[in-house]
Amino acid sequence: MQVPTRIVVIGSMNIDYFTRVQAFPRPGETALADRLEIRFGGKGANQAVAASRLGADVEMVGCLGDDEMGERYLQRLREFGIACEGVRLAAGLASGSAFITLDSNSENTIVVAPGANQQLDAQQVETHADRIAGADCLLLQNEVPPGANAAAMAVAMEAGTRILYNPAPWRQGSLLPGGVRDCVIVNETEAEQLLGSPVESIEQLTDVPGIVVTRGAASTLANIGGALIEIAPPVITPTDTVGAGDTFVGALAVFAAPDGEDPYEALRMANAAAALATQRWGAQEGMPTRRELVRFIAGA
Predict the structure, then answer these.
(1) CATH no. for residue 107?
(2) Catalytic site residue 246?
(3) Whole-model pTM?
């Protein structure tokens, strides 16, 4: 299956602070965590890492703080082979942070302090218009200001660059852009907010072209080019679900053919990559390489 030679990601970069508890605390209650781990995350960077580890040539556009963690994050992305010429260090600002708590069932809650991510604007994106125009695929999420996404989408649409939009976290106004030729990727909660009712069957997507709905352990539902697809993910016991959704998006960007052929296979690969990512602790640390994914599928 063809791998795009170039993917541009417009998105967030966060420092993740992980704790694990037996059960989430109720309002006014204190829960003791068994450990604290500091890792690198953010939906934009996570999707960039996922795509890079699966063999794509990835460029990142976003903002970090001009603090120690910002410098460390730049170095980390470069170690993953991600081009960072589009990343700006915002003066006087802290890098974005996310506070993630997992319970004994490997479910998670996340609170994000955006920090420098909020400084990404249309002007910075337009400075890198040539990168977007020359890419095979543009990845967008909702952890940066909407003006930056709108500017990137406009450049991509004019240039004919494929667009994959993951409107997460959901915010008012996260609508299906009429010009997106590839797809919008949402989970169950986001799909309900987008479409106005829970999505429980493939028939509900009949009149919604260009959408993929991930549902955890349940079947992924999609309408790609008018083709209704339902495909079950591999049956696994998750260790850590953080980053699985971002792995799915990054993998779909890698394996979705530019001509739209064989969307079933692209979704199958994305499902498998997301499942494999849940077998390790940490978002980026759990993301599989292309070789690991091929071996996992062969043994499934």
Answers:
(1) 3.40.1190.20
(2) yes
(3) 0.90
